[in-house]
Amino acid sequence: MSQPPKKKSTLKIPSFTNNHFHSQHNLQKPKMAPVVDQASLDALSSQVDSCLAITSQLATTLGDIYKNPSSTFTAATTSTSTLDAVALSRDASNLAKAQATKISLLIINEPFTPSAITTVVRELAAGPVPAIAAAVQACDPALYTNVFRKEMAWRCQRLLKEIVELVSKIPKNGQVVAEKDRKGFSKQKGSLASTGLLWSAADDVVKLANIGVAGYFIQKINTWRDTLQDVLEELKEWSEQEPDAETDRSEAFSDDDDDDDIDDAQKLVDDLMNSQKTIPEDDPDGIRPRVESTLRRLRLTLHLYQAISKRRLSKLLQVLPSDTAADSDIPKRLDDASVILDRLPDNFSDLATQFYDLDNEGIDSGMSQCFADSSAAGESFSKNWQDETDEFSTWVEKFHAEMTKE
């Protein structure tokens, strides 16, 4: 039987010539990074070095202001005297953050473009970097207080140092930052740790600018008050502890027969763990009345801190800083009062330690110092910012009487 004729396939098989093969092969080759000309790299290197030198020098200057916030600088008395220091610090920090972000992206993403990086670094060195320093120099203690200027100097110096850290990481070899060196805050996209630190430093400057002088002092006094509250609670808890009756008996009737107990290792451990002294039951030195007196005055001091924040500091927004504040004594009043308000928590903490040690002389001197400082702190805010007496002035008089009475 004859077979039916086979149908010819209509499928066309392409012919692969050598040229076609090489063409397909070339498409699969990895892309090579574009060659960067040496002139662009040299320009980038020069700009980076210049930015680092300027920023480092200004950071040192701000460090000097931080150490001595009452110091004045010639540059600050002329070109920066009319600047709004707070607003300038905020704007410059935001701009520095934005430009630093650009730099971070440019040095971790292909292709590496030295000309673009050079432009951003130049703008950073010419704009926000000197503006950040100028803001601190323009922060005149006669308008903003030494306390606020010191804090601004510290935060702005930290920001400049973080700028130095980031700029110093800009590659000068024409290649982006290696993947292994991108240990930043965003693992998915790749980033630099220095970028996150710079953002944090910039945000801290902006936060300070946003709350201003009044907000910063309120923040400080709340922190001091929290510390005083901790001291109060710890001292109160200690004062309520009862003396160990077993310990009192062993001390009162100790003799040579107790040698076996001394040799007991477990007893030594127990004694060590319970070594804090308590007020003796008979209280021969009159410790307890002094503890109660201290606790009462410590509570009054806590009320004072709260009242200062509400009755005085909250109203600073209306009077400080202002163009007419140059002849005002308000900044000096705040600086002087801050010295006392700052040391009171430490002094009360030291006094509590004297109680824990049952140190009679230390207790007496500590009480005198703490009560006198508390009274002085109240006097610092007796009059309002218009140098007039008011309802709070009357409260301060009563507070003073309570702190000084026997």
UniProtKB/TrEMBL annotation:
Stretches the record annotates as Disordered: 237-260
Lineage: Eukaryota, Fungi, Dikarya, Ascomycota, Pezizomycotina
PANTHER family hit by this protein: CYCLIN D1-BINDING PROTEIN 1 (PTHR15492), CYCLIN-D1-BINDING PROTEIN 1 (PTHR15492:SF1)
Gene3D superfamilies listed in its UniProt record: I/LWEQ domain
Domain Cyclin-D1-binding protein 1-like N-terminal: 92-240
Superkingdom of origin: Eukaryota
Membrane-spanning segments: none
Name under which the protein is recorded: Cyclin-D1-binding protein 1-like N-terminal domain-containing protein
InterPro entries: GCIP-like, GCIP-like_N
GO cellular component, one term: nucleus
